[in-house]
C-alpha cells in the first residue's frame, strides 16, 4: 500500500487531545515547521483532520507525533463484519494471565465495551485491572469474521511497543462467550507473551455461571504456562 494513501481520521480524538493539551492549531503548525525531521502540516490539513475527513497517512502520522500520541489512535476504525449475523454490542467481562514485575503469573480482569451498528464495529474500549493497577485500552482495529473476533489494542499513556496487544477470540455458547488468546510484548520479560483469554457478555442469561467458568478455565493455566 502506498505510504501516502489517504486514511479516515477520528476527528473527535484529534480535537480532544489538542484541547486537553491546551494547544492551538497555529502553534502545532508552527512546531511542525520548526522541526526539520517532521513533515509539515498545514492549518487546513489540521482542520480537515478534526472534522473527521480523510487525509494523507504521512500527515496523520505527523499530527500524532505533534500531539505525542500513537498514530493508530487517530485512524477511524472501519471494523467491517464479513458473513456474520452476530451482534457483540455491550459490555463483556473476562480474564487473561500476565507476568507481574517479579515474573509471577497473575490473573488479570478486563471489561470491554463494544459498539456495533449493523455491519460495523464502531468502537471498542477496555478497562484492565491488575494488582494495584488500572489502565484503559483503546482498540484501533476490530473485525468479526463469521464467529471469530480479531482486535488490536494499545494501552492509553504507555510508550509503544509496550501496551500493544492482539486478540483472537471465538464466539461460543450462543454468542455469549468469547474464548481464545491474547498476545503482547511484555517489558518485564522482554518477550512476546501470550495468554488464554475468556470473556462473557454481561447481559447474557447465565452471566454469573459463565464468568465463574471463565475464571476457572484461565486460572487453571497458571501452572501450565
Topology, element by element:
Blueprint: E1 6-7, H1 11-20, H2 25-34, H3 43-50, E2 55-56, H4 57-67, E3 90-99, E4 105-117, E5 120-130, E6 133-145, E7 148-155, E8 165-172, E9 177-186, E10 191-201, H5 207-219
Antiparallel strand pairs: 1-2, 3-4, 3-10, 4-5, 5-6, 6-7, 7-8, 8-9, 9-10
Question: Please, could you describe this protein's structure?
Answer:
It is a single chain. The relative contact order is 0.13. The chain has helices spanning 11-20, 25-34, 43-50, 57-67, 207-219, and strands at 6-7, 55-56, 90-99, 105-117, 120-130, 133-145, 148-155, 165-172, 177-186, 191-201. The two termini are 38 Å apart. The protein is an alpha+beta fold. It is built from five helices and ten strands, in the order βαααβαββββββββα. Strand 6 and strand 7 (148-155) form a beta hairpin. An eight-stranded antiparallel beta barrel has the order 3-4-5-6-7-8-9-10. The protein has a two-stranded antiparallel sheet with strand order 1-2.
